[in-house]
Amino acid sequence: MPDETTTVTFLGTSAVVPGGGHDTASFLINGRYLVDTGWYAAIKMQCYGVTPLDLEYLFLTHCHHDHYVGLPQILLYRSMRRAQQRPDLPPLKIIGPAAEVETVVELAQRFLQAERFPEVIPPTQVIPLSPGGTFEDAAFHVAVCASRHPVPGLCYRFTDRRTGAAFAFTGDTAYDPALASHVRGVSLLITEASYGANPAPADNRSLHMGAPDAAQLAQEAGARRLALVHCPDEKQAAALEAAREIFANTFWPADGETVTVEKGKQSS
Ligand SMILES: [Zn+2]
Ligand SMILES: [Zn+2]
Fold first, then answer.
1. Residue 268 and residue 255: Cα distance in Å, rounded?
2. How far, CA to CA in Å, does 239 sit from each of 19, 143, 144, 179, 194?
3. How far is the CA of 86 from the centre of ligand 2 (A)?
4. Predicted local confidence at residue 266, as pLDDT
5. pTM of the predicted model, to two decimals?
6. What is the tally of structural domains in the chain?
7. What distance in angstroms lies between residue 171's CA and the mean position of ligand 2's atoms?
8. Range of the domain at 110
9. Is residue 266 situated within a structural domain?
10. DSSP states of 43-82
């Protein structure tokens, strides 16, 4: 009987620049799909029993630095270790916003001096996605809509094809009612709370959310649980408290925490 459990392991939950021992928002699905790279994803995942060789997919929500800065290290790790441990290593499939994902992967390869040291570039396959697009493999159906952020961003909704369990992550985004429709009925919603306990300010030029905005989104979407990420470490406790006043089933994941995505009836 195959294991039908879907798990999410949080590698980090900080915003922009992590404090010592932490990492920016990044997480693993079933130990095989990495969402954003954080500063130290290649190192952090080893703390939790996974290596970059185990990855099949990398999903980039958008191409701001704190979400892809760890990509060169992941590529370097795979090239350094594959000869001894996984000579048949398949290409890492990298999925992200169509307008920018190819550029970021190419720049990561150039940073590793691809022309001078081609042996340090492991095979990759870039899969650009646009809002409204979908993607499927044996385990998941993935649908994306646009996040509302100064650069192209994708909000990913995953549905486990075996169990129907659904979960979603918005990436960095301002509140938008279209997001609530896209993530309706998910068991687990992972979203940002850059402004901590405060709602986004009226001008919100950087297009982020505060914890109250995230909680409102979870409530409108009918999500079962809300995980908050992407906030300075010292503001996380207050952000969690503010969100729980609106949406009680909110948590702030600890680094390394693994949660199981609950199965169950989905409303869409
Ligand atoms: Zn961003
Ligand atoms: Zn960010």
1. 31
2. 17, 28, 27, 21, 9
3. 32
4. 47
5. 0.93
6. 1
7. 8
8. 7-260
9. no
10. HHHHHTT--GGG-SEEE-SB-SHHHHTTHHHHHHHHHHHH
Neighbours of 223 (CB within 10 A): 27
Compute the distance from residue 93 Cα to the ligand 2 centre, in Å.
Answer: 22
Q: What CATH number is attached to the domain comprising 14? A: 3.60.15.10
In a domain, 95, yes or no: yes
Contact yes or no for 89/122 (Cβ under 8 A): yes
d(CA 242, CA 250): 10
Residue 265 lies in a domain: no
Give the distance (Å) from ligand 1 centre to CA of residue 149.
Answer: 7
Res. 173: pLDDT tops 60: yes
Compute the distance from residue 15 Cα to the ligand 2 centre, in Å. Answer: 6
How would you class 69 by CB atoms within 10 Å of its CB: exposed for 0-12, middle for 13-18, buried for 19 or more? Answer: middle
Instruction: Give the model's pLDDT for residue 264.
Output: 64
Residue 27 lies in a domain: yes
